[in-house]
């Protein structure tokens, strides 16, 4: 596994398992299998409804806690300084953990300023090692960077060959914010695994299109977070650090960029309205 050093020297793996849409009843088993295969970064969220399953796995594994990197995110219905703090305390309780390695503001909506102040305080108390945001475009990220005592260390964004986010990545690099990529496979949309560009590169390197995508992301210095409950895919996806894409490969993948989300645009009213339809009771 390769790592990146965050801006205060905390190390984070370049590849991690996301557990979105994995039921809590299955999550413990999947996370334990991933840890056994060498994964150390596990990404969950309050909205996923499976923090407890992640926590059970962390507490059962023989891998020392300090070798794991556990992330959760505060949903916007828990926004505001007091509500956010209480929600993170509840997340810690659900997971049976004394601290979290990373907590993110999940969406750029509601009182995300108050939420972030709560994360700053819990970071200073040692309950959260690093703090950041998720789904923040450069304008709102610039706002967060300008007016907070502790700048966001991480910004987790949608990123895949159809939505490559080059401007966002350049802005984050300039301001020392570590990007993470969620949905690197675009949830299989547009028949991504059979795309001729990816098929050609995969054949060239004797790898799968999924491995090519993950290597493309990690070679950019971006942390890749994929979701799978299948052990064979979890195993395959770990095998990406024994090859490198070359300049020609990168140029070919660049032609796939549509510069548009395949899910939603967080800058539009429609994006917010869609997110408000997602059930959340925690």
Automatic annotation (TrEMBL):
<protein>
    <submittedName>
        <fullName>2,5-diketo-D-gluconic acid reductase</fullName>
    </submittedName>
</protein>
<dbReference type="InterPro" id="IPR023210">
    <property type="entry name" value="NADP_OxRdtase_dom"/>
</dbReference>
<dbReference type="InterPro" id="IPR036812">
    <property type="entry name" value="NAD(P)_OxRdtase_dom_sf"/>
</dbReference>
<dbReference type="InterPro" id="IPR018170">
    <property type="entry name" value="Aldo/ket_reductase_CS"/>
</dbReference>
<keyword id="KW-0560">Oxidoreductase</keyword>
<dbReference type="Pfam" id="PF00248">
    <property type="entry name" value="Aldo_ket_red"/>
</dbReference>
<dbReference type="InterPro" id="IPR020471">
    <property type="entry name" value="AKR"/>
</dbReference>
<comment type="similarity">
    <text>Belongs to the aldo/keto reductase family.</text>
</comment>
<feature type="domain" description="NADP-dependent oxidoreductase">
    <location>
        <begin position="21"/>
        <end position="255"/>
    </location>
</feature>
<keyword id="KW-0521">NADP</keyword>
């Amino acid at each position: 596994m390769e790592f990146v050093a965050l801006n205060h020297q905390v190390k984070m793996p370049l590849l991690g398992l996301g557990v979105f849409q994995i039921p809590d009843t299955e999550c413990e088993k999947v996370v334990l299998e991933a840890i056994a295969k060498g994964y150390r970064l596990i990404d969950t969220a309050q909205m996923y409804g499976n923090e407890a399953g992640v926590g059970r796995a962390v507490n059962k594994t023989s891998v020392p806690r300090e070798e794991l990197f556990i992330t959760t995110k505060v949903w916007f219905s828990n926004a505001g300084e007091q509500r956010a703090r209480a929600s993170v305390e509840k997340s810690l309780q659900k997971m049976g953990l004394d601290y979290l390695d990373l907590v993110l503001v999940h969406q750029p909506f509601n009182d995300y300023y108050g939420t972030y102040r709560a994360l700053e305080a819990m970071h200073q108390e040692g309950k959260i090692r690093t703090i950041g945001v998720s789904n923040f475009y450069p304008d709102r990220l610039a706002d967060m960077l300008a007016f907070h005592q502790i700048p966001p260390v991480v910004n987790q964004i949608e990123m895949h060959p159809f939505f490559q986010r080059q401007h966002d990545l350049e802005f984050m690099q300039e301001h020392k914010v570590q990007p993470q990529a969620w949905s690197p496979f675009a949830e299989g949309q547009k028949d991504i695994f059979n795309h001729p560009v990816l098929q050609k590169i995969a054949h060239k390197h004797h790898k799968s299109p999924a491995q090519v995508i993950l290597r493309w992301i990690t070679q950019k210095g971006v942390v890749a977070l994929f979701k799978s409950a299948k052990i064979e895919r979890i195993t395959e996806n770990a095998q990406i650090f024994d090859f490198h894409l070359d300049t020609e490969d990168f140029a070919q993948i660049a032609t796939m960029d549509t510069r548009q989300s395949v899910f939603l645009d967080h800058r539009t009213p429609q994006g917010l309205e869609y997110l408000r339809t997602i059930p959340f009771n925690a």
